[in-house]
Amino acid sequence: MSARPLDLAAIGTLVTAFVAGLVVPPDAVQGDLQRIMYVHVPSAWLAYLSFTVTLVASVAYLRVRSLRWDRLAGASAEVGVVFTGLALVTGMIWGKPVWGVWWTWDARLVLTAVMFFVYLGYLALRRSFEDPEVRAHRSAVLGVVAALQIPIVHFSVTWWRGLHQPPTVLRPDNPQIDAPLLFALLMAVTAFTVVFVALVSRRAELTAAEDAARHPDDTDATAGSAITAPIVGGRTT
Amino acid sequence: MSLRRQIATLIRFELRDELRGGEVALVVLPFAVIALLTIPMAVGIDTPLLERIGPGIYWSIVMLFGVLVTQRHSSLAPAAARDMLRLSGVDPAARFAATTLATFILLLGFEVGAGLATVLLYNPSLSSWWWLAALLPLTAAGLAMIGTIGGNLVSGLQTRTSLAPLIVVPIAVPLLLGAAQATEGLRLGAGILRWVLLLAVVDTVLALAGVLTARPLEESAA
Amino acid sequence: MSDWGWVSLTYGVVYSTLAIYTISLVRRRRRLGDGQGSP
Predict the structure, then answer these.
(1) Scanning every residue of chain A, which has its alpha carbon at the shortest distance from the alpha carbon of B150?
(2) Which domain covers residue B95, as residue numbers?
(3) Residue in C1, C4, C7, C15 to test binding to A, most A beta-carbons within 10 Å
(4) Rounded to whole angstroms, how far apart are CA atoms A117 and C18?
(5) How far from the centroid of its chain's Cα atoms is residue B103's Cα?
(6) Could you read off the pLDDT of B117-148 as tens digits, one per residue?
(7) Residue A142 is nearest to which of B153, B181, B212, comparing CB atoms?
(8) 3-state secondary structure of B1
(9) ipTM, 2 decimals?
């Protein structure tokens, strides 16, 4: 299995971002801990992007009924769960030296955790079906319902934590950020996004291959494609 | 048969099945009460503490064990019955509405039962208890809708008893937060209108989602 | 632990997770490819 341009781009940008994150000067307030943001912020961004993609792909599937959309939805959700998990872990590791505890009931952390479990359930549902069509149907419905609930979860958690906001001087994304640090951050976000696209592409392709292996007679073709031209004199055209 | 009569008939069938089986009253509710018993066993029987956490524990129990109510046997029509309903022209949205309403009624009863047990065991303060007349139905409705959608998603699966709760509970978080913050607000004498509004919004979104997704789910029903 | 310690821990977790996930994808694909001979 050869490396494609997308894969090479992913590796290239990731290496560049990695180096940039290490080489850039430390933040005036947070010191070297700021470098954690160069992996935390991109991961969090991808968490939201991936589940948006799953929503769009789910809606697209329900309208067009092409399994291609279902595979995209599933791939995006799986890669999204990986990045959501990373967002959570990196957020917690950042919080330990800063706040002294592994877990705080910060609104964003709680929301990210809930999202993680919502899409874990989505993946568990997908794994339960053998038939790609049934899987696609059911997952698409859950994809839409879950995505509709996420903004509501966001508001309810924010309202809830808003009542007990501790005085925090250090917020994960300090808006006042110097140019070189901003560059490192943007580089990281770009790199992670390219990695995300590459991984989703591979994951969707894997799903297609697995489905084909398990159901060799099913294709994306619509009804009627099984009918060929009549054979006349030994030729089909 | 008009839509309303379809729904009414279906609700009657489900509730009658439930009355015969008694799963909610005789199994899930006792299970929930046992859970309420185990918590003081685990955290200690410090009375002021239990008074304080009682309402929160109640809503947590309602969410977690209410899911079992929504996945009860009588709500999961066997494949043959489903097919028959479909062939006789029952609107999928009507089936969703009927199952949800039947579940709503059962959840309401469940909430009252669990509530009585909580009052007995935890002795929470009951100021402005009349707000419960709004909170109980709002949470029961929301949970009923999520549970019905969840049940349709996992129909036909072997793993549905563990998968359905995994899917339902995270999505039900706003219901839990709304209800728990409302009762906390009542305890502190603060305004709770925003939480009631939150519950109403959640329920509306869920109702829309349920109706819109009823037909696609019907197509892939086991 | 020093600040660089936390940073190293974080980067270690992130990049090893991505690597493990990517490798698992490649291996699963390869396993299928052996059986089916697909492109």
Answers:
(1) A142
(2) 3-219
(3) C7
(4) 20
(5) 7
(6) 999 999 998 878 888 899 999 999 999 999 99
(7) B153
(8) coil
(9) 0.87
